[in-house]
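Thread: Helix-turn-helix domain-containing protein, structure

OP (GT): Posting the sequence first so everyone is looking at the same thing. Length is 66 residues per the record. Can we get the structure tokens written out before standup tomorrow? I want them in the notebook alongside the other entries.
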Amino acid sequence: MTAPMIEQLLSPGYLAEHLGVSEGQLAQMRYLGTGPTYVKVGTRVRYALADVEEWLQGHRRTRTSP
């Protein structure tokens, strides 16, 4: 059984720290639509762990050329 989604919501600060980017970079990715899917809870942004993992899988690379 999977954990309820609410237990898997990550704050931008937590995610930024673990990805090694700034919160500003995450905000820019949200603006451009290039980052992980996020949810708004009132005025707060949260990331579902499953969405972050899916986004990371989509950014795996085996070489540096496009």
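GT: Both are above now. Quick notes for whoever picks this up: Strands lie at 9-10, 39-41, 44-48. Residues 5-58 form a domain with the Arc Repressor Mutant, subunit A fold (CATH 1.10.10).
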